[in-house]
């Protein structure tokens, strides 16, 4: 894996002439896990799409780039908010899809291993329609982990999971993605309090940085300082108009 760059995004986004967000400015530190927390509709997914080069019909007047000057294309894995699994492929084939499109052979073992790590060993040959919402989300997570990119953008990656699976998948992702530049969108204050080495709070007024407790991530979900930070973040979210 090449060195993980810092990311920078600043500017204003519009869709059909209507504002989506901004003007705003954010920085994502190199090789660290940053959570982007904010209410529904504020523009979090749009930020991830712009950074991954999939702005679609959103017009953006600023910069969305790596700060090392090299293009981000080819260095980013995006786990989108909807799982985007191919309905005609089973779980293993969905996880290996990127590798197969790039003509890389022999990745099946790694894919099967990752499906085991996300708790789906017994479901590896099911197609998406035969999986639950949380199982589909774990296939999408395995596909993202399979990509092995220095920059990883996660859009509500654990939102469909029960509390226990969510904590397990948070631990797994934090372990496997350590040292990469991760931007993780969530609207869950508990999740940001557990995982964020940096936490950015996005409201219509812009982006502010919140200082998390010291120490390694993932933080214990029941440690007093984790819970206090979760409460602080939730309080900030409640005060958004
Ligand atoms: N292609 C588009 N055309 C028109 N409006 C758009 C487009 N993309 C996003 N928007 C609008 O921009 C705003 C931000 O959308 P976005 O999906 O980024 O929000 P979000 O913060 O990810 O919300 P959520 O937490 O609900 O996923 C919304 O009001 C949405 O309707
Ligand atoms: Mg979104």
TrEMBL record:
Record has Transmembrane as a keyword: no
Record's keyword annotation contains Acetylation: no
Gene3D superfamilies for the chain: P-loop containing nucleotide triphosphate hydrolases (3.40.50.300)
Source domain of life: Bacteria
One MF term in the entry's GO annotations: ATP hydrolysis activity
SMART domains the UniProt entry points to: AAA
Pfam families: ABC_tran
Alphabetized UniProt keyword annotations: ATP-binding, Nucleotide-binding, Transport
Similarity section: Belongs to the ABC transporter superfamily.
Protein's recorded name: ABC transporter, ATP-binding protein
């Amino acid at each position: 894996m090449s060195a993980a760059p810092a990311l920078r995004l600043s500017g204003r986004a519009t869709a059909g002439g209507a504002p989506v967000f901004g003007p705003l400015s954010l920085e994502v530190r190199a090789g660290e896990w940053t959570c982007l927390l904010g209410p529904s509709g504020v523009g979090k997914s749009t930020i991830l799409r712009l950074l991954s080069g999939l702005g679609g019909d959103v017009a953006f007047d600023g910069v969305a780039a790596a700060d090392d000057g090299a293009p981000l294309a080819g260095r980013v894995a995006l786990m989108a908010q909807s799982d985007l699994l191919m309905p005609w492929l089973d779980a293993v084939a969905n996880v290996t899809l990127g590798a197969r499109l790039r003509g890389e052979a022999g990745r099946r073992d790694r894919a099967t291993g990752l499906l085991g790590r996300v708790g789906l060993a017994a479901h590896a040959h099911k197609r998406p329609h035969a999986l639950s919402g949380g199982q589909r989300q774990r296939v999408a997570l395995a596909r993202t982990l399979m990509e092995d990119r220095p920059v990883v953008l996660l859009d509500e990656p654990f939102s469909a999971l029960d509390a226990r699976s969510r904590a397990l998948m948070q631990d797994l992702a934090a372990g496997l993605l350590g040292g990469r530049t991760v931007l993780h969108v969530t609207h869950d204050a508990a999740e940001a309090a557990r995982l964020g080495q940096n936490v950015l709070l996005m409201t219509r007024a812009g982006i502010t940085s919140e200082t998390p407790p010291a120490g390694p991530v993932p933080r214990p979900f029941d440690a007093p300082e984790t819970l206090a930070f979760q409460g602080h973040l939730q309080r900030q979210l409640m005060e958004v108009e």
